[in-house]
Amino acid sequence: MDIKSYIPEDLLEKYEFHNYNHALEIITQAFPEEWNELVTCLRKLNISVSDLQAAGGNETNIPKKFDDVLYPFGWREIRISGDLHIKFFPRQADQRGRFSNEPFEERVIEQYIDGHNIDFLKNRVAFDLEWNSKDQTFDRDLLAMRTYYDCDIISAGVIITRSQELNDVFKTVLDHDGKPIMRKYGASTTWMGKLLYRLNSRRNGGCPILAVGIRKACISDWTEGE
Does the keyword Calcium apply (predicted)? Predict the structure, then answer.
């Protein structure tokens, strides 16, 4: 599948895209409104050097930039909780494979699904941003999207994170102590390499995932070689 036929050319210059279980086809064809809103959000993303220098990990101004665009469109952070209701149906007399219409016992496992939150949800599309958290956060995100998918809440999910090429920026931008900010964007934080190996090992289960990497072109006031 040629992603260039689905993604506008200007976005291909600013982001990298990795398509799993036909997520891109599903979102663009079945949910064009949500896709157009995500495209608008990606186009408006403008990260400055001062944004990179700010402390706060995943709570810097960068996640707020996504809030400012997506919330007016109706995207919301969602957390789900659910109980598992189990019914036991006995076999009818000596008839193998035939069971009573009435259960003889019922059990409820409370909070069988609990605490799974996603940054943005609209219609049947989920969207998560991981800018600079511990890389284990991807396990939580993929489990959440897999759970939403298995519960028939979503049809596909999008996860956006840092592209590896942003390291070129981090090595040249200095923090307030005069040291490269690369030290706070380490290998054990959330970036595309940490996400892809999890997707390649199918930790998303059957949930279609579109992985998006933020590239150097998104840094508005940084020039390579300076």
Answer: no
